[in-house]
Protein 1
Amino acid sequence: MAEFEDGERIVNSHDLQVYMDLYFTHQIMRRSCYQCKFSSTDRPGDITLGDFWGGAEDIFSGIITQKQKEAGVSLITVNSDKGKGIIELLTNMSVEFNWILHKCIDDSFIKYQTGLNSPTVKPNDNEAFREYMSKYGFDAILSKYAGFNLKGRIRYYIKYLANYIGLIK
């Protein structure tokens, strides 16, 4: 879902899927992401905020609903004593704001958080990707690498309709 300042929301659109497809190729990352010195659990800030990737089914079973999982689960890690104080404050505020805070009792969640394990892996063809973008522009990248063209749009809507009527899940 994409939400804009004027309140407009885009959900399950081809345009949004194109962005997600391109993002997950790891081609559009900044070069520094491929050698990020912060890709570990040893972090300089008091807390770390991020999306909770993977494992939510096991860790949050019986704690949050499927609808809440689909809406998104955030991860907050504590990196200092000051960070502990921030979490205590958030815990006290959680009822007022209808937040669900769940303390993970071990570090099994870390294996799903790739950004806490290692930098993003640079795709082998990343330099060719960047050269292509420099030569032909971003619209050409969208067409070549993310299916932002007529064929890609048709493929997206066929899958969308097949899922909608229950042919695929």
Protein 2
Amino acid sequence: MRLVTVPARLSFPRTFGLAAAVTFVATALGCGGTSAPETASAPAATVERPAEPPQPRREGVIAREELLPIIEGGLGRFLGGVGTEPQVEAGRFVGWRITRLYPEDPRFTDLPLQLGDVVTRVNAQPIERPEQAFQVWDSLRVASELVVDFQHEGEARQMRYAIVD
């Protein structure tokens, strides 16, 4: 599986309803965004510490305070800007093919997720049935990350965003 790089910081206006946190659920991810501000700091003293285990690789960040109003707006409202159709192969559901992704919103133009890609899972959960999508949507209230598994031209890919308080 190939990890894809996404913007370091996502920014979502409240009226748009985090048009990002969940193209995830029935289609997939986020929004384009702004870079995280750089901060200057004084050089730190060198102190040896025991080695820590590596942190999971994260490709971007979503602020929970920006995510919650979108979740509260509801999955149906969010999906109003997204078009999908079921992708079925050999009689089995594979995922949701993206046919439209907020076409008038420039924040969606730089996503690794493209028209024709097939979203297969969100946060390791299936999204085939409406109740599954609603469960994933609701779980984002407390989730520590958003992970969207998708296929691009038959190749498995993944987008990851940390959800931070």
Protein 3
Amino acid sequence: MLRTFIAIALIALLDSLNPATIAQAAVFAGTKHPSRAVIGFWLGAMMTYLVTGLLVLAGLSRLISDLAKHPPDWLLVVMLVIGIGVAVGGVITWRRRHSQSIGGLLVAGNQRTAFSVGIIATVTDLPTALPYFAAIGLITSAGLNSAQELSLMLTYNLIYLLPVLLVLALRLIAGKRAEAKLEAITAAFARWSDRVIAVLMVVGGVALALYAGFELLS
């Protein structure tokens, strides 16, 4: 157990040096309410990463892989509807980019927005989470009981997201000295966030809808 714990902790420590996650935490640390924004982001990322890991640990990854390789018609219809919905949502977001404001919610330090970003950012980062999946493989091969496996999964996730909390701690310690720089980063992110999100929604939605449509017709 101790050797496995040390190995898991070291892998998680290396995985925690994720520039994308740290940069997003820095953005939320520069908002009007840094504590609740960063904690919201942390909770969203933690929940998503931990639940995904537990599903893989439970062996559901094979089922998901089979569904991805040979999706049934009902799943393709659901994907088609989702793709169209996401694309339409992207168009609406683009048209309202000057009046609404996802960026404004970010600057305000809205906790729900931060929580949602934590979920979305973690999901999009999963294809690169090779260290995490390697750690899960190590846990499953260690011959541990369920409680020990769960404790190792929690350990991994806490270490992986530790830099997010460190960013918040540095922001609170530095106070006014860091505030101006972080606010400038957050403001720049907010100006472009609506446009970037809208484009990603349209591209991703259209791609998903086209894939589902072609599969249904083939």
Protein 4
Amino acid sequence: MTKKILIMGASMPLPRPAIKVASTYPALLQKTLPHIKVTNTAKYSQSIKRIYQTLPSQLSSYQPDIVIMHVGLADCWPREKFNGKSRLDVASFTDYYEKIIKLIQASDIPLIIVGISPTSKKMNRKHPNVLKQITLFNRVLKKDADQNKIFFIDMSTYIHSNAPNKYLLPDDQHFNKAGHILMSKLIRELLNNHHFFSESGS
């Protein structure tokens, strides 16, 4: 039986004007893991609240063996329509995160959480304390990671605020081609190291 990966999130797993679908990490995962079915249901600007609301139906519809959740940027980033504040505060974000964890644990499905990538110091000057906000939201995302059933990929290990464009587009938020390649590699390594699937491709 074909094993299945479900990717849920906002814009990070999706194409941008400078990034074609084939260059996104879900597409790269599908290409390098041809024996695995990769389904990407991410939507632009999707909040963790919406992911929580749709999770039960998506688990039922897709019956995944592993869920990858790439969320947080859309919730923590300051926005003009919210008078320069984030869509959700940390407490509300935590509440929806904990509800998701309970649903995942009840389904007994491994969960890979991708942390929010640090932005640039330039963006932190434009949006004061956005780097601190990213750190606070990442603390929520990694607090239940046990590296057994719940895994956290810490993007601050690879992306640094003093030189983020090695892996991020000029918007200092979203992956460039190298970032998508890195993300695909990190996920494949995690899957392989924990023997979830036997890898085909590199």
